[in-house]
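The record is passed on directly below:
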Amino acid sequence: MSAPSNPRRRSAVLVAATGAAVTLGALLPMVSAQASVAVTVDHFAHVQGDALSIATTQPNEVILISSSGFPGGPAPTVTVDGAAASLVNSATDEGSDDSIFSFVAAAAGTHSVVVSGVQHISPWDDTAAVSLLNATTDGITSGTGSTAPLSLTTTQPGEFVFGSAVDNTIDTTAGVGTWTGSLPLTQLGSDHQSDGLDFFWGTATAAAPGTYTLGLTDSVTGAWSQFRVAVAVPLGILTRGVQSVTETVNGANLGFVSAPGAVTPPSTTLNGVDEVTPQFAMPLDVGDATGSGNGWNVSLNASPFTDAHGHTLAGLYQSTEPVPACDAATTCTKASDITHLVNTVNPLTYGAGNLVQVADAATGMGNQNVSPTFTLAVPANTYAGIYTSNWTVSLNSAPH
């Protein structure tokens, strides 16, 4: 690529912007930048050519697009997903040009950026795009420059600055760019094409309102044409908020939701041989609201079944340790006795605590109904009569 005979020219462009904040469910007016809220880069991409894709992760993100190359000419047209982007500023001569556009992407996703109407010759052209969190295009400012640092004024604290630079060095060596001025940018990306254009993109945050200078020095000196464009973007609609949210869950008590239900063994008619009564249940509604996961147990202390004349029945047996059912409107962890602590083989011991229902650790949480069942042994030589037993039911923490 040969250089025209006109003298070398250098120029630059600079842009700035501000934004607003939202709380959950409510959009607040534009506010000053705070330590916890700032305009930040979401995604950045660049490509040799006139089309690329840029991602956004939140709705209403601001996308800044830089188009630059050789030869220079009027600012091109830029579309994002087919909709026109707004030209912020541009700088041009016959040796190169540099333009920055802005666009607000309403929905999160991957967006197609297309530059058209340029006079650039491939491969001496590059397109770059950056998506920004918490930014607005309201109040955006810009500046352009060439050999001298450009001037950029911001009006609000915490404005985000994006700069683009192109140097037509007519050299196959890729230059190394160093951003200079009172607000030196941090390099976001760079590229070099053929013989040869250098492209640079950088960002910074202007902590306080004011007028800043911005320039770039290329390690390949003597550029025939060079431009810098920068924009300042204010803090705007908050598109992402990161915070630690703490919820304290306090444990309560372990207890019976209601008094144990009545136990009513069925009557038995002697028939001359040993008998066992049909099963009868002890209805229980256990409430573990401790949130500890320690488990629990229910013990039964029963006195012997005795009639008015002092006769007793031979034995009381537990027949089942059933799986509980969660109470209505309750998500419970059902009690489980995987260690089989409950005895369903031998008769219960009268006058002592007998485990009749067990919730192992990490089970039995929440309100749940459970009804262990029992039977009575009625030998053939049992005296007819009414037999009575006093039952004391205890609910205790831990499986046993």
Q: What stands out?
A: The chain has two domains: 10-233, 254-397.
